[in-house]
Specification:
The chain is an alpha+beta fold. The chain has helices spanning 5-11, 17-25, 117-124, 144-152, 189-196, 228-238, and strands spanning 2-4, 29-31, 34-35, 42-44, 49-51, 54-55, 63-68, 98-99, 108-114, 132-139, 154-156, 159-161, 165-172, 175-182, 200-209, 212-213, 223-225. The longest helix is centred in the C-terminal third of the chain and has 11 residues, at 228-238. The structure holds uracil. Uracil is lined by residues 103-104, 107, 188-191, 204.
Length: 239
Amino acid sequence: MSIRLDKYVCGCGAGTRTEVKKLIKNKRVSVNGAIVTKADTKISEDDVVRLDGTVLEYSRFIYIMLNKPDGYISATRDDSQKTIMELLEERYRNMGLFPVGRLDKDTRGLVILTNDGDFAHRTLSPSKHISKTYFALVSGDVTEKTAEIFNKGVTFKGFTYKSAELIIEGKQNGLTAVRVTIYEGRYHQVKLMFEAVGCRVEYLRRVSFGEIELDEKLEEGTYRPLNEKELEYIGRIKK
Ligand code: URA
């Protein structure tokens, strides 16, 4: 692999492309021990690149866990609405990140952002059966009968949603607190499944994506890179 030095340094999270170009120009970046001042110098993964003497670790792909708040759309850009990209620091905005699957504007919780198109593509494959679990507060009559219906699969407005698991957790302010696990990712799926049984989702938060659980320490609007265990799971999906 051969890559431009500024792209490489950027990929290590050292700054935006403009910032990185300045760092290079200001003689702060070295390749294999020699200062390099040209941003378009071609380097390979075997080269040792240092910023102010500290070795930079290049990872080809980035994976971030974001706790999405209400009011942001799951898009990379939009002319009028706030996007989840606006929650990221500047340095993450030039790395070609995109969300793996979309949450509605008013849905909160776990979103994985990456620049790994192959991983994103594989998660969509029905053969992978990647589970997505949501915590929801629902108005209307949610009973064990609803759980049975979800378990059999729901047909509504021309779509058949495959078997889903519904666990009733209790009541909260007159609403029913539930956990729903689905194995597809259709548009408005959880809301439409409840609508099919005459109920309405009033609050929705994704709490897990396959084996990756939303980190309880992440406040809404904040994010962190996936940890080793989570990355190991990503590696298994990609096999
Ligand atoms: N189901 C929905 O209805 N909305 C989401 O955002 C995710 C799943």
